[in-house]
Amino acid sequence: MAALLRDILAGLDARYPFSYALPEDRVGLQVGRPEDSVETILVALEVNDAVLAEAQHLGAQLLLTHHPLLYQPVSALRLDQPHARWLVAIVKADLALVTCHTNLDLAPGGLNDYLAQLLELEDIETFPSNTREPWFKLITFVPVGYEEKVRQALFDDRTGVIGAYSHCSFACRGQGTFLPHQGARPFRGELAKVSRVEESRLEIQVPASRLNIAVARLKAAHPYEEAVYDLYPLHNAANVLGFARVGRWSTPRPFPRIISQVKKLFGLPLVKVWGRPPEEVSRAAVAGGSAGDLVMAAQNQGAQILLTGEVRHHQVNIADFNNFAVLEIGHFQSEVVFMPEWAKQLEKLFQNLHLRVQIRLSEVQGVPVTYW
Hints:
By secondary structure, the protein is α/β, with parallel strands linked by helices. The chain contains twelve helices and 17 strands. The strands form four sheets. Strands 7-12-14-15-16-13 form a six-stranded mixed β-sheet.
């Protein structure tokens, strides 16, 4: 049975919360109906003629992109202009379009975390601190013997995670009472009689963006007809959200070696370097796309280099380039490298949600870039 688009959107929102996106950004459902059925999803960096032809050839029902097609307000649909032509083609093909843009940049495990891992950085930190996502403690009460079933339903890559530890929970025993009234279907006990049951109080930490899906999993796994749960806001836990990552190499790397590594990882014959880099680098910052506004923030983090897609002259002209450099690799190259990893994450995400969809990675990701 094909998945519904609204369930796919809910899954994406849980993994890469749309609320993370910048206020002026355009993310989520751009074209389509939430009740549409989806069997095949084509994942691409952005929309273009080749990607649309590929989607139609594959018989895809959903095109999932990083760059939004509808970013600026549409004032006219002139078919002699690419964006309008693509939009009309999407509608004619009855193809849904969903975008994860800056929310994919900020999300834990998203684009920028991947870039930091790709460079083999250690002790990775997020900067700048744009905002913090609050956490909650989810508390429920389950009959003794059902703790593990409910635990496993709730755990994922962020729920039940504390620092470098996952699958974190706490349980203690107690006695619950209830009196089933007419119309109830008690899992244990009898109608019109007070029952006393040995139960476990189960506690798990959940980020705000995971609350809805965590509660849904709880209700699906809980044996009781009415799953009781409490939510307590935590003032000592929060996810720091920011566009860039900074980390270190335990053994300083010669700058020429870093350039060779970057060329190999991103398939580049050349890397544009702004500034005067040190001979060896131990601390580096990364940010996909356009991160010229973060040059000085990277320096404040103690980074000796910042790797990003693109910068503007006025953004680097005001920075102190004494033993510091910006490595400019191209907006396209800094993001397209994440697409295969994103496709893998999506396969795992939808499998865990029991959504039967096929993920296909676009083979014609965008405008080709060559160096002359």
